[in-house]
Design a protein that fits this description.
heterotrimer, A alpha+beta (188), B alpha/beta (582), C alpha+beta (189), A: 188 residues, alpha+beta, Alpha-Beta Plaits, 2 domains, 9 strands, B: alpha/beta, Rossmann fold, 3 domains, six-stranded parallel sheet, 24 helices, 20 strands, 40% helix, 16% strand, globular
Chain lengths: 188, 582, 189
């Protein structure tokens, strides 16, 4: 059964890696619902957050492929329930209807949105929330004519208290020490 | 009705249920494809099976390697102006196409490449002969697309031809999964004429046109440089009309060669690293540089720091991304070269520029004395590349299609062949692909079966695609092959001699007896090493019906001059090795 | 002089397009500061917002290359000043440190941030704003130990009242009518 999964991948480098990661999806004809590249809480480590709608088997295989990239420290996948996630959306509406009735104002209150900027011509509204929530506000505002609309990619953090990666990095160091690079191939 | 006509007629039936693979073949015929090049294999077998029923309407040439197929399609496209088509299977078949696709991308050659792909369910599983062809070809195609359902085939092919041929042409790749080839669809074909996200060319801006005309009318020392854009835009007559009216001397890039008659009085020669002396030094002396359908490649400009800084620059170009990419322009005329040159010719004043043109002639006299005479009429024993090229050109009355490979001989070919009609010089410019020549000559011969097609190749490059002798033999193609053998990878050797203290690291190459190799394929040939036997050897080659291989022994120290050293200014062009050591 | 530019790309198709675009940047060794794919106000039209730190000349050429991609409807570039933009950041801190002093609460108030979730173990804080603003809060909170942190890519709107693209699409349709595509290379028919 297909459902939404959030894939997080950590890396020390991100020039070029973005291609390597997205190509894994396109090769398999998997549509990327949202993609965000950002810093993590760990210095020098950036984080890719990718949302896909796929079966668990396929996602698990894709994550293995991502994990296999030399420059990827670690890739994880989670269901929505396992994560706290947010998106931000901006809406630009004409200022006139806002002045003429209180309907837009009511919408803003109801959806817990905020006004970012008002000019005589237009007003920019900001809302954070899940996609359904930002979409609902879009649908509410659209009868008044949304001039421009944009939504960010999803950002997400796990419900476990610490950044999973710090634990993982410790384990990775321990593992690499154990392997002690036997250099199987370099018999020369 | 002939079988061919019957097949063509059958291919035109609409609203019939057929397989995806048959739709591929029918769509190709609908786009006017007559000759295609390819190599079968597992994932493309359904298409080959469908081709069997249309083998008279659509001539398929079996090359000996997929790289041969794509270069042949390039050669075909370059001589005919049509879209070249090649077909390969998945995995290695597709990866073998990549060199040619990259070559076509950088040289703006319209191609439609069709690759088979594993069944869509196996995508991403590392199945047998699966590779991510769309991912691999992305940076080297104008557009690419994977087809996984049969219904998408006609539309995708229509789009592919439209994109490949319109605007600045380029290669397009369609990757078709096996299930899409096997599946059925209701076939209906409609050509593509518009894609909302794609503007092939912009309408001419009249104000800019007037600005350009003013600059041209006011210029005392105007200089026109042109590239392949003239031929891609079919603007040869307009170019001639423009220079005839304005009296502006014109020089060409390697790929612009043959767009303007070699003997035209205002044709002042080749630009760039191994171009002529006059065009290079005058680039830095002119007061107006009019660049048409060329992209200021670094092999043409030398260092940009000192390139035509004194001149105003007009750039006539179809691709907006080329404007101000390398050289800042004063007036950019975006659009189709044919339309722009025609409009411009109407509004500029007639002129002669006698004194200015004379300066080019004087520069030519210097080059002639220092370089050309000894290249074409050497006194020393041992043949030079220049004299062989010149004699072949003369024998064919400058009417042959001349194909070259990459290296020293390529420069000699460009400098010393003469042309009387466009689309007659075929070579790999931007990518500099050794091994291009022989398969491109196959495509050229199929595109121009009634003209002589001669390929000049070095001993190195010829061996990179030597297996295509098999294709020539099987298809009985009258390609005349001239191998200029100096027993070295000559261009690299030249650089080692001039810039690497004569440390000849791995440039000496052992070659087979090429005439014997040709003989093994049933292709006649001969060797020649002496000047007094050269004319006869050339005569026999052209008098022999069908393919012929002439192996010519060349002096190994026959270096290519003049030369603008890498990173130098075009005005610091060297006329001899002595200049280099100064 | 290098500075931040926001590149906005509109397209009807986006599978694979991200690659085609990022390849243009990576080939030129340009670092992508942030990349966001999202819908636009026009149905069926997708928008990719990229932030880079570069010289304007270079940005201009890059935008031309992006615009040249067959599937791209139009690419624009703007300076930060020309756009209204926001990012969102999430911060996870220990609930314990929140309980022990009122410092974190003060930070939340002064930065106009919001608490998204509190559990006995951890608390998630949300803040929207420009990068410097979300960064400032990170530094403030980090004294107490930020367990996890994430910031979205930038989203941006132009200061002109309407979606630039709608105008553009009208012009494009007119343009395509004007250019009689000669299909000049296809003599075959």
């Amino acid at each position: 059964m297909k459902q939404e999964y959030i894939i997080s991948a950590y890396s020390e480098n991100h020039i070029g890696l973005l291609n390597r990661i997205t190509i894994i999806f396109t090769r398999r004809k998997v549509n990327i619902e949202s993609l965000t590249v950002s810093e993590s809480a760990l210095k020098g480590i950036s984080k890719f957050t990718i949302v896909v709608n796929e079966t668990k088997d396929k996602v698990s295989n894709i994550v293995k492929q991502i994990d296999k990239q030399i420059e990827v420290l670690k890739a994880f996948y989670h269901t929505n329930e396992e994560m706290i996630f947010q998106e931000i959306a901006l809406y630009k509406v004409p200022t006139a209807p806002l002045m003429e009735s209180d309907q837009i104002e009511k919408l803003i209150r109801k959806h817990n949105a905020r006004i970012l900027e008002i000019t005589p011509e237009y007003t920019v509204i900001e809302k954070t929330g899940h996609k359904e929530e930002t979409q609902e506000l879009f649908n509410g505002l659209n009868p008044f004519g949304v001039l421009q609309f944009i939504r960010s990619g999803r950002i997400a953090i796990t419900r476990s208290p610490i950044e999973k990666l710090s634990e993982f990095l410790k384990e990775r160091d321990a593992l690499l020490a154990k392997i002690e690079s036997k250099g199987k191939i370099s018999k020369v | 009705m002939t079988t061919k006509e019957k097949e063509t007629k059958r291919s035109q039936q609409q609203d019939v249920e057929i397989t995806g693979s048959e739709a591929v073949i029918r769509s190709l015929i609908a786009e006017g494809a007559e000759v295609i090049f390819g190599y079968p294999g597992g994932a493309i077998m359904p298409v080959y099976d469908a081709l069997y029923d249309y083998r008279n309407a659509l001539r398929h040439i079996l090359t000996r390697h997929e790289q041969g197929a794509v270069h042949a399609a390039q050669g075909y496209a370059r001589v005919t102006g049509k879209v070249g088509v090649c077909i390969a299977t998945s995995g290695p078949g597709a990866t073998n196409l990549m060199t040619g696709i990259a070559d076509a991308q950088i040289d703006s050659t319209p191609l439609v490449c069709i690759t088979g792909q594993v069944t869509s369910g196996l995508l991403g599983t590392d199945a047998f002969q699966e590779s991510d062809v769309v991912g691999l070809s992305m940076p080297v195609t104008k557009w690419n697309f994977q087809i996984t359902t049969p219904e998408d085939i006609p539309e995708a092919i229509a789009k592919a031809f439209y994109i490949a041929a319109s605007g600045r042409p380029g290669p397009v790749l369609l990757d078709i999964t096996k299930d899409a080839q096997f599946g059925k669809l209701k076939y209906k074909y409609a050509k593509c004429h518009k894609i909302r996200s794609y503007v092939p060319e912009y309408p001419v801006n009249k104000e800019k046109l007037a600005e350009a005309a003013t600059l041209i009318n006011e210029a005392k020392k105007p200089f026109l440089i042109f590239g392949q854009g003239i031929m891609l835009g079919e603007a040869e007559r307009e170019l001639k009309g423009f220079i005839d009216k304005t009296g502006i001397p014109a020089a060409w890039t390697l790929l612009g060669l043959s767009a303007l008659n070699s003997d035209h009085p205002l044709n002042v020669g080749m630009l760039g690293m191994h171009g002529n002396y006059g065009p290079n030094i005058k680039t830095n002396e002119c007061d107006l540089l009019i660049a048409v359908g060329m992209r200021f490649d670094d092999r043409v400009t030398g260092t940009l720091k000192t390139y035509a800084k004194q001149a105003k620059i007009i750039h006539i170009e179809i691709d907006p991304a080329e404007i101000n990419k390398n050289v800042k322009t004063d007036v950019a005329l975006l659009g189709d070269a044919k339309k722009i040159l025609r409009l411009l010719t109407h509004i500029v004043s007639p002129n002669k520029h006698k004194e200015w043109v004379k300066e080019f002639k004087q520069a030519h006299a210097i080059e002639d004395k220092k370089v050309i005479q000894s290249d074409l009429y050497p006194k020393k024993p041992g043949l030079t590349m220049g004299e062989v090229v010149r004699r072949v050109s003369e024998y064919t009355k400058n009417k042959a299609v001349i194909v070259s490979d990459v290296g020293q001989h390529q420069m000699a070919t460009a400098r010393y062949s003469k042309f009387t009609q466009p689309r007659s010089h075929i070579t790999s410019g931007g990518l500099g692909t050794m091994g291009y020549g022989l398969p491109a000559a196959i495509g050229a011969k199929l595109g121009e079966p009634n003209r002589e097609v001669v390929v000049f190749a070095g001993d190195g490059g010829f061996q990179m695609t030597i297996q295509e002798l098999g294709t020539i033999a099987q298809e009985k193609l009258g390609v005349k092959m001239v191998i200029l053998n100096n027993h070295f990878l000559g261009m690299v050797r030249q650089w080692q001699e001039l810039f690497f203290e004569k440390r000849y690291s791995f440039t000496e190459i052992l070659s087979p007896d090429f005439v014997k190799v040709a003989d093994a394929y049933g292709i006649p040939g001969n060797h020649v090493s002496d000047r007094d036997k050269l004319d006869d050897a050339i005569k026999v080659m052209f008098e022999t019906e069908g393919p012929y291989l002439l192996e010519v022994n060349i002096e190994k120290d026959d270096n290519v001059f003049p030369m603008v050293p890498a990173g130098a200014s075009v005005s610091d062009i060297l006329l001899s090795p002595e200049d280099a050591t100064k | 002089m290098k500075k931040e530019f926001i590149i906005t790309t509109y397209s009807e198709n986006h599978i694979g397009l991200t690659n085609r675009i990022t390849i243009i940047l990576t080939r030129r060794q340009v670092n992508i500061e942030s990349l966001t794919g999202s819908e636009s106000a026009l149905p069926g039209i997708h928008k990719i917002t990229i932030v880079i730190n570069e010289e304007e000349e270079k940005v201009k050429n890059i935008v031309k290359q992006i615009d040249k991609i067959v599937d791209v409807l139009k690419a624009f570039y703007h300076t930060n000043e020309e756009m209204i933009y926001q990012e969102i950041a999430l911060y996870k801190v220990l609930t314990k440190s929140l309980m022990e002093s009122d410092e974190i609460e003060k930070l939340i108030r002064s930065h106009n941030a919001r608490i998204l979730e509190i559990t006995p173990e951890y608390t998630v804080i949300e803040k929207t704003g420009h990068k410097e603003e979300t960064q400032e809060l990170f530094q403030g909170l980090n004294k107490f130990g930020v367990l996890q942190f994430i910031r979205s890519g930038r989203i941006a709107l132009t200061r002109s009242p309407i979606e630039k693209l709608s105008e553009f699409l009208k012009e494009r349709d007119e343009l395509l009518e004007k250019v009689e595509t000669r299909s000049k290379l296809r003599k075959a028919n």
